[in-house]
Write a structure and sequence with these properties.
The structure is a single chain. By secondary structure, the protein is mostly beta strands. It has one domain: Metallo-dependent phosphatases (Purple Acid Phosphatase, chain A, domain 2), CATH 3.60.21. The protein is built from three helices and 13 strands, in the order E-E-E-E-H-E-H-E-E-E-H-E-E-E-E-E. Strand 12 and strand 13 form a beta hairpin. The radius of gyration is 15 Å and the shape is globular.
Amino acid sequence: MSKRVRGFETGAELRSAGPVRAAAGPRAAAIIGVISDTHGLLRPEALAALRGSDYIIHAGDIGDPTILSRLGEIAPVIAICGNIDRGARAPKVPVTNVLEVGGVSIYVLHNLAELDLKPEAAGFAGVVSGHSHVPNQEMKNGVLYFNPGSAGPRRFRLPVTIGRLRLCDGKVLGEMVEIVPGQS
């Protein structure tokens, strides 16, 4: 199975590709680790929490392109750029991306305020975003909107978190995982 994603291929040259499509059937279960706003800091606790993922989504503000390579050692990475991912050292990833697994499609962008489509009309089961550093999930019109919060440097009094999406029987279920720095 190819590990291609739009704009990033783990362990290979950068190339443009379509959405990631898994070979699994429509009733297959998958675990998708979700991380965002690392801002150049990939905590060992975050890596430990993402182990066992079938795919990893990085929802932007990566900060250091080597983070994508390290995540790619765990599972195929679907990444998008955030508002800090600019300049010569910025990772070469798209602004939006799509992950399809077992007939379930998830749309990924950094800032939810910039969503320019109706996910339910486009057939997406989930929308993953970052940017706010606030972990949040809610269902709207049958679509799971999921923000894993921030796994990078602590901001304000917000927790350091990642998320997990579980795909099963055509549904997307989310959970937040608080990372306790220094306890991997």
